[in-house]
Write a structure and sequence with these properties.
Layout lengths: L11 H25 L6 H22 L8 H25 L5 H8 L3 H12 L5 H24 L3 H25 L3 H4 L3 H24 L8 H29 L1 H4 L1 H18 L5 H18 L7
């Protein structure tokens, strides 16, 4: 009797990069908060520096591998739209959201990325959700709801600021989802990953700089070692490395399953906050974390997550 192969999402080639991305992105919320609390660097300039560093790093990797940073007209348009959605709109919204609500609440709300990713994949890619993925999604969203209640209760900014922050995070989610689904298209598969990401990040950094100049004026930089280290970490690890791994995961298992990364990221962020910031887990937070993890396991072990 033949044994069915394990689902792609439980293979080491997916689980290892999935875990690496989780650990990196789970730590970024603390770094972003430090940047926002620095010497008055507007969020748009911090985003610009981040993706300038990431784009240059990936361009160097591409050139070292002998890959050209040149595309046809469709490729340049794809790179520009990807850069606008993922590296301009998404991150400008996220950085501004953290000016109104805590990083913990932003990361929890961002877990809802699972919903538009699944819907857009159904509409634009024709991917139908399997029953096990739907069950896993329901369990994970229950966990996210408990985490949301916990973070909303502890947020010191009040309901008005919370609504603004949540709305900005919602805009970031939609922008990120557009970029996620783009990576699962046939157009994306026509171009090598690293050169495409390098160009998208550099174009995104250019658009970020133009937006910053138009809205907040001349460049501002924070000379603190922690800020410089944060820009390098966010540019090299959280962008150049993590996005390369994450977009490859999307191409392998689809945007719906890949979005489970965002469900577990707030749990990782809270675990790191426990170690470095003395975060204390409540019963609600613990229950939410357990449910989110259980939903992830259920979804990733589905043999036919999308069809």
């Amino acid at each position: 009797m033949s044994t069915a192969p394990p689902p792609q999402s439980t293979r080491a080639s997916v689980l290892i990069p999935f875990t690496v991305v989780l650990l990196i992105w789970g730590s970024t919320w603390i770094v972003i908060r430090d940047q926002l609390g620095g010497a008055g660097v507007p969020p748009s300039w911090s985003v610009t520096y981040r993706f300038a560093v990431a784009g240059v790093a990936l361009a160097a990797v591409a050139l070292a591998k002998g890959e050209r940073l040149a595309f046809d007209r469709t490729g340049w348009l794809f790179a520009a739209v990807l850069g606008l959605a993922q590296f301009v709109c998404n991150f400008n919204f996220v950085y501004r959201a953290e000016q109104h609500i805590t990083s913990g609440l932003v990361s929890v709300v961002f877990a809802l990325l699972l919903v538009p990713n699944a819907l857009f994949a159904r509409v634009f890619l024709g991917q139908r959700l399997g029953r096990q993925l739907l069950v896993g999604s329901a369990v994970a969203m229950a966990g996210v709801a408990l985490l949301f209640v916990q973070e909303a209760r502890s947020d010191p900014n009040g309901p008005g600021e919370a609504l603004i922050g949540i709305a900005l995070t919602g805009c970031a989610i939609l922008s990120a989802s557009v970029a996620n689904v783009m990576q699962a298209t046939k157009t994306a598969a026509r171009y090598p990953m690293i050169p495409m990401l390098a160009v998208a990040m550099l174009l995104g950094a250019g658009m970020d700089a133009a937006f910053a100049l138009a809205t907040v004026g001349a460049p501002v930089f924070d000379p603190r070692p922690s800020y410089i280290a944060g820009v390098l970490y966010l540019g090299l690890a959280a962008s150049a490395l993590a996005f390369t791994l994450y977009f490859r995961i999307i191409r392998t298992i689809g945007p719906a399953k890949a979005a489970y990364n965002s469900v577990i990221v707030p749990v990782i962020a809270m675990l790191l906050s426990t170690v470095f910031e003395g975060y204390r887990w409540s019963l609600l937070a613990a229950a939410g974390g357990v449910l989110a993890g259980a939903g992830l396991v259920i979804a990733l072990t589905a043999r036919r997550p999308n069809r």
